[in-house]
Amino acid sequence: MRNSRFIVIFFGPDGIGPYQQAEADAALRRQIKQPQHCVIPVLLPGATPEHIAQCSVFLQGINALRFHTLNDPLPHRLLVGLLRREDPERLRQLIRAEAQAPDDLLQTLQSWLSGLSIDWQDGECIIGEGQGERCLNIPDLSASFNADSIEYLLSWKSRLTGLIGREQELQTLHAWADAPQQISCRLITGEGGTGKTRLAFEFARQLHGQKGWQAGEAQGLSGSWYTGGTGTLLVIDYPEQRPDRVRALLEALACQPLTCKLRVLLLGRNGDFLKQLTQTAQTIIASGFELTGLADGADTNADAWQLFQEAWKQLHQRQQRAVPPLPLTPAAFHHWQQRHTTHRRPLFVLALAVHCMKQPGAHELNAPEILRALVQQYEINRLVKEAKQMQLDPHCLVMLRALAAIAGKLPGEALRQLIQASETPPLDIHLPALNQLKQTSLWLDGGIPALQPDLLAADLLHHALTQIADDQAGAWQYCALAAAPDQCEASSILGRLIHDAQFILQRSWPLQALIGWVIQDDERSASVNAALARNNLERSLLPLAIAAGQKAVQAHEQLAQDNFAAHGPALAHSLNNWSKRLAEGVALTIEETKQLMDIKARLRQIKRRVRDEGVQVPARLAWLFESGEPDEDD
């Protein structure tokens, strides 16, 4: 390099090696002291801003060349031009002359390292632009095939097959990305197993690979991510679990002018929480769409049949096995699909292919039966065997794996609390000490993660509560909720799992057991009531919320009898919350309607007494007493 007129630094998928890094640093130090070389950073396919950031800040104003693919002749022509010291602006004209050429083939490293930051202060979202710190993540486990894990085989992250049957949805999303709006948000809704997340991250992968976008999941909705020169896509899964934070983010984005093109893709079961956005925030919301099962419009199940065939082939080829004949004919598959609409969902088609590997007659089962068989074979049997080998309670690992679904993940501190709660009073299943749990296959990255996808978790949790916990199902559900790091988010997850079990897996849920356990104790009831005190509550949790709300009213009535000045406003608040929950019922009975009217009449009396007696109202409840009287005819 000492005799060269150029310093060319090639960044690969893993950046540059330590020796190349040392050579580049030495050359750049000489260049800083006595500029005499043309420095040309070259970004090969797979190179990321994180790799570039490891090099000297001296490079940030320098033009860098990017190869999206080594087969494209245009970047080679640009590299020759740079070596000939041609004007970079003239080279950019060559890029603009190519209709399909990405805009980011030649730009300064400063542009590559620019980023978008999301920070939080007292619940307020603060958006900023500056230098990024990390890339958005597109999870991909396809290189780590694991035939022994049903979680892996059914996960979208494993990419067992290509994305099949979603061409129209992808076209819609690409048109949205290409639209001129600087900032836009879109929601994809759909039931579990329809492939929302797989579609979203395939879209992200295409934007990143084909158009030079930075795209992926914004973990925790907090951080500083690199923004692509052409655009940035944030994917947010299950926004209804944290609706206040997502709404605050969208409100901030709507008010914040950004230099980068930004798209926010939300993936949820419903979009009710978006109805509470301000008019300003509504301006960045594009129309969403709902994802359902695979259908080609001609009722031939062609897409689902293609998915089944591809899954069958990959399940064997990934294990270096010869691919046997298909286990069922197109007619038999079509008949299975027609038995229930859920059989058209991609997850259940994959589950059928996996189960057919073990049981050739699997197509005689319906989707819930197939999932139960897979969970039994891949999870329950394995964990019972492991527990026995470690001389633990045979059911303890199954129970912990199941309960982890409620919290999303049970970290060490939550596990300590759960273990302690299960001992006072002692529950029948004995949980091992934390140091023993760390020696099991469940322990991963500081805790016990939930089984994924959701439908597997719902099936396992239902099994644990109905077949293992039995009459202690309510206690175990409450213990998991109480131990969760975020009880509000955990209750949202529980509501989603109950919905999946009831409406997709067609299984009754031991919700009454949870209600009975909660209302036995004032502290439990208050804890659950606080966790459920949110808008857009999952309908599956409504009976629990009504029971906890009634218990809260009873507790505040007792306190208000002794000291109305201190507890009257809180009683009014609990009556208001209870009435709202009752009113959310789909079809109220005559008795429930009368009860609701009585509650509202009682609320009016309390509010009048508070005003008449000049009771001091806490600031957090002032809104309730500033509002008008409840409508007599509500």
From TrEMBL:
InterPro entries: P-loop_NTPase. SUPFAM superfamilies: P-loop containing nucleoside triphosphate hydrolases. This is Uncharacterized protein. It comes from Nitrosomonas oligotropha. The lineage of its organism: Bacteria, Pseudomonadati, Pseudomonadota, Betaproteobacteria, Nitrosomonadales.
